[in-house]
Amino acid sequence: MKETLLKTFGEVYGDTEGVKTFFAPGRVNLIGEHTDYNGGHVFPCALTIGTYGAARVRKDRKLCFYSMNFEHLGVIESGLEDLKPAKEAGWTNYPKGVMWAFEEKGYQIPFGLDILLCGNIPNGSGLSSSASVEVLTGYILKEFFGFDVSNQDLALIGQFSENNFNGVNCGIMDQFAIAMGKKDHAIFLDTADLSYTYAPVKLEGIKLVIASSNKKRGLGDSKYNERRSECEMALAELKKVVEINGLGDLTEEQFEANKSAIKDIVRAKRAKHAVYENQRTIKAVRALEANDIAQFGQLMNESHISLRDDYEVTGVELDTLVEEAWKIDGVVGSRMTGAGFGGCTVSLVKDEAIDTFINKVGEAYRRKIGYKADFYVVEVGDGPCTL
Ligand code: GLA
């Protein structure tokens, strides 16, 4: 990949003097969905697929961006003076947002950059290509300008930029999973205080399979923000009767005892998901640590049901992928992953069942939905690095 990056960089920008090459992963969340903005736990891991980058510092304050995934757009030019939260779409808003966020946090970027990116995360799959670009950009700035920031800071700066530059009110999970990724480990993160531990993902004879629904997200982001405010309202109602900071502070029993404080049936379902999903995540990590993969898979399935029935973020595409997966012998667990409303599912599949899984689920999906799903057998990888 390094050679391809350098060769293309030379073709696009004339030469490769002063160029360095980088990588930041994508992520998949194993369990703990829509808990990260509710002070709950998540359990994601970084992948070996992600975003590659080549970059160098310029002598002026110009910014030049080129993506090998959007070659038809050519080089997109901007400047360090033009970094303002933008409403218009476009992939350069992610790197620009991170540069803006660094400056907002008091890190002055002295010179512009020539940047080339190349991602191998399937497009729109919900494996966090945007957070991958954010963390990669932060890592590049740190490497070139010597900013004193930890990988955890890179995650927080990435989230800050996505919230305030791109207008998506996301939690910390994606950026954290990417910035803090560790090969063959998932991250058990408590989003209430950012304390975390790594848990080995020992999957003897089992692989992680991603199924991408290829459904375009559309209204996804506004629905995401809607779920977030529903949870905030439910929390405000619960706070009148019980002393908590977030829905993640409640056990299932405490929730059941106090749920009548929530005055709307839909909001009560949203809050129920947030509480139960957080507890499920804690139980799932315990099961994995005890090497009880069957129990882990069962909790993944329950997570999907809760996201489908109580949180209502799945849709026919994700439900079809998961419900077809459940029918197959050798599938340990299957659920939607990420924000939902499209994107992808994650399944734990026994080695000998992978071909059947891909054929059967793929065929049923095409028959019911009318277009194809894509399948990827993925591996758990490290966080950002210089190549
Ligand atoms: C998106 C957000 C994350 C998280 C998930 C749902 O991926 O970026 O912060 O909220 O959705 O778990």
From TrEMBL:
Domain Galactokinase N-terminal: 8-56
Pathway: Carbohydrate metabolism; galactose metabolism
Name of the featured protein: Galactokinase
Organism, as annotated: Parablautia muri
Binding positions (Mg(2+)): 130, 162
Domain (GHMP kinase N-terminal) ranges: 93-182
Superkingdom of origin: Bacteria
Gene expressing this chain: galK
Database matches in Pfam families: GalKase_gal_bdg, GHMP_kinases_C, GHMP_kinases_N
Residues noted as binding substrate in the record, renumbered to the chain: 33-36, 224
This protein's UniProt keywords: ATP-binding, Carbohydrate metabolism, Cytoplasm, Galactose metabolism, Kinase, Magnesium, Metal-binding, Nucleotide-binding, Transferase
Function: Catalyzes the transfer of the gamma-phosphate of ATP to D-galactose to form alpha-D-galactose-1-phosphate (Gal-1-P).
